[in-house]
Amino acid sequence: MPKFLEQKLKAEYGQSSKILYMAMNKLGAMHGNKETAKGRMMQRKHDKKGRLTRLMGR
């Protein structure tokens, strides 16, 4: 599951909320308890953006 999205949702809704998974299912990042290709793609894009930001010094 996209870790960055999970962290954002946990901060907003609380640690033990099932809204996290409902939101990720609705976005298409997960299907039930399985991560989808879209979810993996979201995580890769987030990781790539973070690496570029660190390399550019921003």
The gist of it:
The protein has 58 residues and is mostly helical. It has helices at residues 3-13, 19-27, 37-56; strands spanning 30-31, 34-35. It has one domain (3-56).
Q: Work out the strand percent.
A: 5-15%
Multimerization state: single chain
Estimated radius of gyration:
13 Å
The outline comes out as flat
Helix-residue proportion? 55-70%
Number of domains: 1
Q: Can you list the strand order of the major beta sheet?
A: 1-2
The low-confidence parts are none
Largest sheet: 2 strands, antiparallel
Look at the structure and give the mean pLDDT: 86
Which secondary-structure class do the elements indicate?
mainly alpha
The count of helical stretches stands at 3
**Element order, helices and strands?**
HHEEH
**Number of strand elements:** 2
Distance between the termini: 27 Å
